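Write out the bound-state structure for MRU.
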Amino acid sequence: MIQTLEWTEQGVRFIDQTKLPTEETYLTCRTHEQVADAIRTMVVRGAPAIGVAAAMGIALGVKSSKAENVGDLKREFNAICDNMGTTRPTAVNLFWAIARMKEKFERLRVRPVAQVKQALIEEAKRMHAEDIAANQAMGRHGATLMPNEGGVLTHCNAGALATAGYGTALGVIRAAVEAGKKIHVYADETRPFLQGSRLTAWELMKDGIPTTVISDNMAGAMMRQGKIGAIVVGADRIAANGDVANKIGTYMVAVLAKENGIPFYVAAPISTVDMACPDGTRIPIEQRNSREVSHIAGKQMVPDGVAIENPAFDVTPAKYVAAIITERGIARAPYDESLRKLAGIDVKVEV
Ligand code: MRU
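---
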């Protein structure tokens, strides 16, 4: 099993995703600042993994605090949470994880310092375990939507590497394959950071799931040629109306899917649904360094002085989304109703 991140006595251990697919190396962050840097520099990436990493980073910071009373510990804790919140803006799982750690601290404030520290570590570990369980549940629900055989296209990496394990979109594919479906994955390479060719292809190959990498501009032609029976992607934030922020290029895939009559599915945990965000126009989109576009493997590909844009995410309007697969079941349009039910308490789900 791929260990994307784990809590160890020495610190938080990550597989270094910037080195894949050619080097499988691991990095142990011993301070919360190092964890924040690992998120910023994409050593760890993918919305659910970012959330769990942040929680573990916060627990790590609290663990090494010298505070002698809970009031002082709380001040340090808040500063650590603030810093974690500046790492990446789009994936709401980061803010969800920070809020959950804060709620936990609130409930513990009458306890001795040592107990608070231990309980925060346990909470972060629980989030890790819950994320894997959520992905497996998502897989069970989503597998029913996958074709019995043929091509399934995915964009970016929404796999084990983007989560605590198993994956969201790739979890759905894994579960479908485990159920005996003969799926062949088409992985968009996903310029500029190449999460598809470097990460999705790497982890599917490890699992022996047949995969073909295509450059992003080939997806439309593959759909038109009838090679793609379904599309499944992950999400960084889903607005209350069902608009989906995901890796740049997802919108293009969704529109082409509609044009070609192919169902476009989104798989994401409930922690990715931001009920406070009414629609996609309110989702903050991270702008990354222009060098990711201008250079490939260190070689300059754009003339000096030319303007470059590098938005890391785009928003796919809800009208293009055939269904949103969550650990609590499958939501369909109208999403403002179905997501509210799934995010709420009493839920009658489709599967
Ligand atoms: O910039 P990244 O690599 O963090 O972007 C990741 C994605 O866009 C994923 O599709 C998304 O986080 C879902 S991961 C289960």
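---
Residues 52 and 127 are 6 Å apart (CA to CA).
The chain has a mean pLDDT of 97.
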